[in-house]
TrEMBL record:
Region feature (Disordered): 1-27
Species name: Rhizophagus irregularis (strain DAOM 181602 / DAOM 197198 / MUCL 43194)
Composition bias type Polar residues, residue spans: 1-14
Protein name: VWFA domain-containing protein
Domain of life of the organism encoding this protein: Eukaryota
Amino acid sequence: MQIRGSGQVSNDSNEVQEDTNDSSDPLTTYLQQAKYKEESSDLTNSISGLYRLLDLCNDDDSTGIVDKIIISKEYLKKLCNDMVPSSFKSISEINYTELNSISFRLIGCYGNRNLIAKLLLNKNIIDQQLYDSFTSSVSIDDTNKPSLRPGIYLLIMKANLGLLIYWPEIGCYENVPNISSQIKRNMINLQRYLTKLTDHQMCFMSDKDLEDFDLNLENPDNNSDEDDEPQCEFEVKKRQEKEEFKIDNGFKVNLSHKIKTEINNQMEDDVPLYPLIVESTTNQSFVTRQLIKETLHSNNITSYVSAEQFPIDLKTKLQDRYLHIDRVEMDINALELFVIHGLKMDELLIPLHDALSAARMRIKMRTDQAISEDIKIIQQVASRKLRAFESHFDKYIMHDNDLSQTNISDFERIRKRYPGIETQIEEKIKINSKKWRKMKKRYNLTCIVIEDKLHEAEENDDEKKKSIKTFYKMFTDDETNLEKLFDKYTPEAQQSKSRWNAIIGVFKISNITRAKRMANEKPDEEFIQELVKFKLFEGYNDIKEKIINNFIKEYHRWKKDDLPNNFHEILLNIRNIQLEDKLKREYEEEKKIIEKNMFEKICNEIETKYKDGSMRLIVLSVKKQYMYFTIEYDIEEPQPNQLQITFYETSLKEEEGLHVQENESYVPYPILCSNMNQYGISFRIDPQEYDIKKISQFDNHKFLLILYNKKMRRIEIFFDTAQQMAQNFKSHSTIKSFKILNTDENFIIAINEPKGLLAIYNTKEVKLDIFSFYDNRSRLYARNANIQLLQWYNNIIPNIKYFLFIKDTEELCFVENSGRARIFNLMNLQFRPAFCNFPRNLVNVLSSTDGSCIMAFAKEKPDEFNSIISTDNIEQRDYNNDIKEINRVYVYFSKNFVSAGKVIDLPLNFKSLEFLQISCINNRQTHLISLDLQNGRLNSLLVKITLEQAQFRFQKCMQKKSLASQRTKLNDLVNVYKLMFEKYPIDSCIDPKQNRPLSLKIVLDIEDNNIEDYGEKFNEYITGMFDNLKYYTNKPTSMLKKFSASVITFKELDVEDTNFQKKFSSEYQLGEWIIQLCCLIPIQIAITRNNLFQPLKDGLSSNENYLIELKDGHHLDIISKNISFGWYEGIFKHFGSKKVKVVSSMGEQSCGKSFMLNHLVGTTFDGSAMHCTEGVWMSLVNTQEYIYVALDFEGLKSLERTPQEDMFLALFNTVVSNLILLKDISTMFQKFQDGAKLFESDPKIFQARLCVIIKDVPKVDRDDIIRVFQSKFDRLVSEEGEDNFITKMYGSGLDIIPWPVFGDIAWFKKLSFVNKKLEKQKVKYENAITFLQDIKVIMAKLKICDWDSLDESLIQIRIATLKKLLPTAISYGLERKDSVTKLLLDHDTGKPIEDPKTDLSDILNNFDSTELLPDANIHLYDEYVSFVQLSEDLREYFDEIVQSQEETSDEIKWYENFGKFLNYIIERRISRVRKWYAQNTAKLPQDNSNVINGKYEMEQKLDKLALLWTLCGLTCQQCHLKCIKNFNHEDDHDCLTNHKCNFPCQFVEAHNKKLIPKCIHKAGHEGKHICKKIKHLCNEPCDLIGKRNCQEVCSKEIGHPDGKHLCQSTRHYCGVSCSLSTHTVKGDYRCPNKCIKSYEKPHSSHRCENGTCPIQCSILNCQRKCQSNDHFHSYSGFLYVDHFCGNEHHCHELCEDDGICKVVIEPKKQLQEPFTKYIQLSERLRCSKKIPPNESKHIGKHTHNENGFHFCEAQCQFCGYFCTLPYGHEQLHNTRHGFDSNMMQIKFSEDDEDNISEYTRVDGQRKFTLCNMHCKNLGRHRHIDYCQDEVICKSENQRHDIKHIDEQIQPNPDRPKDFISHKLFWERTGFKDPYPEQQDFAEFDNDRHTITCLNLK
């Protein structure tokens, strides 16, 4: 049995096949049937809280159908999400941390199914009906009832209690003699999982179980050594047999209704349709035929067209065809594409879009209605909180009394439904009014000023009163500027002399800052409480009330105007996830209904319009890719009737095959083979063109199909698997046949598949032709041609009715119509002298599979009986008078071929003699196979043929067993622990902390009178059982010393009792427990097939066609990301920082690799004699310090694997492992040597310690064994030199460990020695994230044969990943910003990049300490968003938190501070991104071109970011403030304010202390602030109005004598466009600014306020400005002026050095191949030199690395891989080769000694072979090459290792060719011989039988 985790639930089932055979063992038959038959219902879903965790399913294996234990994804997902919602997203994304918040106690349960069901019934978990279903499923007669599948289940009984139930297979513990060993293995493995998941188990035993339990069985006195040893004595038995032919009932396979209909087809339109049993000596298959009567045939075609071609292509296809839309394959999206782009009928979609819009509106209304009820309650919650806030105002505010009452339950419901809603409300009801904050600042400042005055006045009441009035005046003053307000009410500030100005200024700023800090830090509630209780106002209630009312007034304004907006934000976010999902589902459902109805309606309209035509065009799918469309059609074309041929194969389950091996009388139970739940493989032929002449089946599922082509008048022979044959017939209009023979239709055929012979008898010419297969079945050649037989029939053409081979011989039987049968011998080409007369009414003639007899089948009437009839069935002798026909077989033994040696009547129900074939099962049983047309079944008769001879058999000795040993099965309820510990380790070798003692409580369904006695007896039994276990296995058993057992009656059992739980359960964290569950089940991670290393995704093969479409070249990255380890992915991520050690085991098949690995690491690889391990399997063991990754490898040197596949496995093992256990594989060292030549000698990956284990070495032989192996290694190292694999792959060292004989106590002690080796081994993977990354990249490299260093590949992948994440990192300071937010991470450790807290005072002077917002999630860059939009949030933040622009008196200072703030924000982002890049490249070589280019690309983008946030600083177009757009903007300058001056009029006296109005000028103007309410100055229009910088009104005194009106501006600007206009390398440039020179001064050159050169740097891609401070330096007098930014630049040119800069691997899809071939291409890298500052280019030629390595340009002519030596090397080229699909091994035909023009491929047609591996292991061989000098060759003066070929040979037959030696072949390639050390290759063997390598183009 395989225990492998595929990560998916496999519920596939076969056709229901009822077994109705007459086997004498009905229970065994029932077990076989019940276990694998499709269940009608699964009871798991009927029980609340029950989750299936481990499931049993069937899987096909090379040894048959086996059981597989897998984790149930469906139920584990349900468990996780039921416990913690959304914790399980996929098998690789499980939130184990969240799941660890759930803890529960757990008890394991196993044993009697009925008692477990009774427990569930008693606890009201199931009802009586379910209980009946549970218990009735054991019944033999009721297999179709609902049942619970075998496996392990978790039952959640309470929140903190669970039962882990092992529900056994039927018959698991029953006393059944022939119980399946597979069931026993399942029992052991599932018990192992139960004990690993729980420390406490309960075994349920009924009174019957107890009665049958032998409590003395494990008593040492009753167990001799012989009884406990496995039966291993055999003997050779001789038996003298007489000729005998007996029949008995065989198997019966029920067929589905569909197949039953097929087999009853007979004849239609003169086409025979009756079924055929396939002739085969080793397989049992049949073929059905159906006539597909279609005058029109559908061809599936695909069009790939542009948007313009689509309607034209469609119109062409519609000619004489009506249109049909496939309702199954097409969906609404595809239909829309078809309507819009193909039919150009957009109007058809209007009703659909209208209906969907209406549905959206309905859903929105339902959404609003559903949420409105919750909003009312939320509003009430907010109102209550507001009232609580208002209560702080005490009596000064009136409260609403209209709050409606809401149930507490409603509040609770809202809290649960909207987590965090109260916090949101509390945040939103915080007063965010700017005026409120200003009032708080003003109030705080006033308090500071007044408190200082009161402190000076001390107890003076007058001063206090005066201060109170001053307090009110200052608080209500109209002055908005706090600095001026402070000056106004602090006379010392006004009267201070100049020398005190600085001190007073500091004092003022400090107090203002203090007031702001108090306003920001003190919550509003606390502020109001202090305001209301302020002692200063005692006795001044009127002033106090006025001040409080000011705040209340602003509060009410905020509550009315602003709060609704705040609250609206909450309401916008109120979307209950469950409610939204529900409504979304409703919409999706409604949408589906609408789309379904409209889909049908639109299809009908289209089909109505396009209804004309005699043929049909079906639209199957429409897909859009960019501007191209892929449309799949079924197009009808005239087609004659088609004959559909369907092959049905059968197979035996693995257990069935074993039973047949052990018992020749056992009746097996074959089942139909299925492919993806589909039975049968079909294809079609034209019956007008082809007739089926013969079908036979050979080994490896290959069929020999012989068709006669009536049109071409020839025989066409096809030889392949049914699946491949069907694929070829379906995909090709012209089918390439295996062999073609030209002949007329007068022939019959015989096949002898054991001998590989095919005979064709020409009935008209009476001649015979014999063909034979080569040994590898690759070619059929003519062996004997034109054998004339007419003379043997007296020159009279015989009427041959039957013609067959006597199987396994070289004799043919000819049966004439008269019944005369003769045997022709192919060795002497003569008939036997004797002949035999068969019955005249023959129906069929067959040969037995061994050729011992010939069977003639006849249908006879009862009156034709004769005396020679014999039968072994008494019932068959009592014939009924009504019987009209008897089926009879006449048996003629080959040695005495004269008369029938036996005549037997067949059973009455065995009717279809014409379908009969004879076949052998497992080389043990012979079956006559037929089809029962009436009952729809494939059935057989078991035939036993005995020859007259002495037979010898090697068989087990029959021994009498004691009663105890016969009844061992009854004790398996307890003995399962012994069986489990025999197979798996008891004590953990690597982690003693995992040795948790087990506790067993045996639950007996008996009265409690003798319960104590049973407790003692079971304890004695278990003690004896474990003593025997220790004695016979010599395993360490310290854990068993703490094993405890007790007994309790079922009646007393109460699992819900608290005391019981404390004593008999353990507590687990759910997350860790699920991890333990997942670690138990290994997963397959890779396989080797077709000479390829193929990584898997979640245990399954994945589609790789997407790789061909990739254009970015990151194939290795994409392949590695497509590799997934199923459940282990999430575990590695969860333990991301934990160190990883990899232990692996390799060796030949069945040498105990898995057993040793299990006992060393503690895994559960189920190695067995069936060597079911295929490829590479992974398992995890989690300890406190490490994650141990165990890799179990397929056995090497197997017949199923090629040397190249073995080499891939060995290389992968070496690269990834820390410690390798290599068992008994001394003959495989060359595979390691082959691998050493591929990968570069990379110390990063070649760190494994190789332990060569020689098993079963007695102590006395250890030294000799070590010397032998030392000698082997010494010889290998001497031959290979520095290239030896030990040095290159294992750090020049390995361990040779002679392992003790199995069963010796030293065997297990040796594991501790290996464990110490493992402990000392340096950690190869510092954390799980690194391991996950490295192993996937290694697997991807092996897949595509990328032999470059792992470091280089990891560098490329890391840089590609960083480049992909870089835009988001720069824009948001995050790696991911979508549905999931992901911080910047160090990808080597998984830790986030630090986002340090920053204080405002660290950036700006004279500002109090305030923590700034963090960097992450600030949006700073977006190519599609303007700078004004990007900067809006930061402007508001600065204005509110740091410094308000409206309140500042110094605009220049504000701009300076704002610039510093932005500069810090940008520099912080740049710093974090650089740190992120640096940390993720810290372990990479900094001089690597990928790292350099990646850093350059990052710096380029960071420069863009910095430039984007560089402020313009020129004057605003509408006022006099500075522009705060970015410096490179092209539109008008803008300060992004309202452009109004916010200062009050300076003519204060004129307003008589009234409210002073604000200034009417633009912000930032020169001169005094003037209002418009009172005419303070002239105010007449300025004479220069319209000029730039004009303030528009005269600022002179009223009535000034001169008539010239001028404003306050000291200069009126010219305003003409700046004169700067020039041509640069990047195009023409014209300065957009206006002249600021005085209009009064004459000037010819106009100059703007920008003094620096605004032109961009002339270097390509540089966006910085020119460094010159001269705006007009372009006019310096030179013809051309360079504009340089003054920085160093990267060169953008490509490397010019000779040779190849970089070799890359790209996929190349092979036509009609399921796999992708990878090829090498060359790539030019960018120059790595820097362009010096103020230079346009660097010195010297372009190079990617000064004096760096460049590859040679030579390519291997076969695989295309580049030479790995440096350009210009002098020695032979050398490379690490790739795949060569052209070279093949051939053998020349033996038909004609002088003709060598025909050859046969003999290498199994493998197309993916490393070109240097073709010659491997061939010994002496030769190559074919084009002749280089034909004249010399023909004169025979050529070299000794060349032989000219005179005949023409494909390819290019006209070009002369030579045989050449292996050495010369590689010399001519110019590349180093991969195997120069093999002396055989140097020899030139020109024998015609020599294997020849051919690779010519």
